[in-house]
Amino acid sequence: MRIVRCAGYREMSRQAANLISAQVIMKPSCVLGLATGSSPVGAYDQLAEWVKKKDLSFAEVSTVNLDEYRGLAPQDSHSYRYFMDNNLFDRVDVRKERTNVPDGLCADPAAECARYDALVDRLGGIDLQLLGIGRNGHIGFNEPGDAFIRDTHLTALTESTLEANRRFFEDASQMPCEALTLGIRHILQARRVVVIASGVEKADAIARAFTGPVTPRLPASILQFHPDVVLVADEAALSLLDKAEAAV
Ligand code: GLP
Q1: Would you say the CB of residue 149 lies under 6 angstroms from ligand 1?
Q2: With contact defined as beta carbons under 8 Å apart, do 50 and 56 qualify?
Q3: Helix or strand or coil: residue 45?
Q4: Distance between CA 33 and CA 190 in Å, rounded?
Q5: How many CB atoms lie under 10 A from the CB of residue 150?
Q6: Beta carbons of 127 and 190 less than 8 angstroms apart
Q7: 79 vs 39, 67, 105, 116, 138, CA distance in Å?
Q8: From the CB of 140, is ligand 1 less than 6 Å away?
Q9: From first to last of its 248 residues, what are the pLDDT tens digits of the chain?
Q10: How far is the CA of 155 from the centre of ligand 1 (A)?
Q11: Which of 64, 109, 174, 208 is the most buried (most CB within 10 A)?
């Protein structure tokens, strides 16, 4: 793992955007695995700015998002499709038909999960997977559990995740308690993984993910097996990792 140490959220965002843009410049028809949440917003702003200035183009890029809430329509402002359109897709020159987010309204989740895995396979896998990390160590919506789940699946959100994400819902009762998420296979098969983390509330998950045992109780720990992970994080998010490494 390589660590890109940043002073704060702004620098983390710029550094993550640099890595994504380098990927797009090197391989204009690349497949980007994208994430939602507050962590990637600054990186998406930076990418949109570069595209506006014509320093970068997403014209040939395909995208695959990690996850979507079950039961939310694409037009619902809380859905991850809406988030992606708003924060990135509508601000860059990507072709909308090449952007993919699981269908939260699907009638048959098992069929939708199979369709999504087949789609990623058909695209040839993911070139660069951008990942945030949940406070409980989740990646995408791969929640802590008894086993790593290989394929795209429907998952019940844990109390920790419901609590962390409630801030995005004005009416907490409207928050779905299930989601569709890419499984561990496609995340691990991504040719490069870029993990972004900012703030002290991520410090524990980051330290345990990269220095603790590899366990499905902390899904991000599986990234220790990936040969090309770049962790772009600020001092606060790295604080406990630094301590754990100093203790070795
Ligand atoms: C959400 C998403 C994840 C995201 C994580 C962290 O639940 N499903 O993909 O990485 O939680 O979110 P944030 O960046 O807002 O802390």
Answers
A1: no
A2: yes
A3: helix
A4: 8
A5: 12
A6: yes
A7: 16, 10, 10, 17, 19
A8: yes
A9: 999 999 999 999 999 999 999 999 999 999 999 999 999 999 999 999 999 999 999 999 999 999 999 999 999 999 999 999 999 999 999 999 999 999 999 999 999 999 999 999 999 999 999 999 999 999 999 999 999 999 999 999 999 899 989 999 999 888 999 999 999 999 999 999 999 999 999 999 999 999 999 999 999 999 999 999 999 999 999 999 988 888 76
A10: 15
A11: 64
Answer whether 61's CB lies under 8 Å from 127's CB.
no
d(CA 124, CA 27): 13
**Closest to 97 (Cα-Cα) out of 57, 61, 135:** 61
Length of the chain: 248
Tokens 């860059």, located at residue: 92
> Can you read off the two tokens belonging to residue 118?
């087949």
| Ligand 1 center to 13 CA (angstroms) | 15
Q: Whose CA is nearest to atom 1 of ligand 1?
A: 37
- Say if residue 209 is exposed, middle or buried (CB neighbours under 10 Å; 0-12, 13-18, 19+): buried
pTM confidence score: 0.97
For residue 56, report the distance from its CA to the centre of ligand 1, in Å: 26
Q: Are 105 and 121 in contact (CB under 8 A)?
A: no
- List phi, psi (to 5°) of 178: -135, 160
The residue with tokens 């899904």 is 219
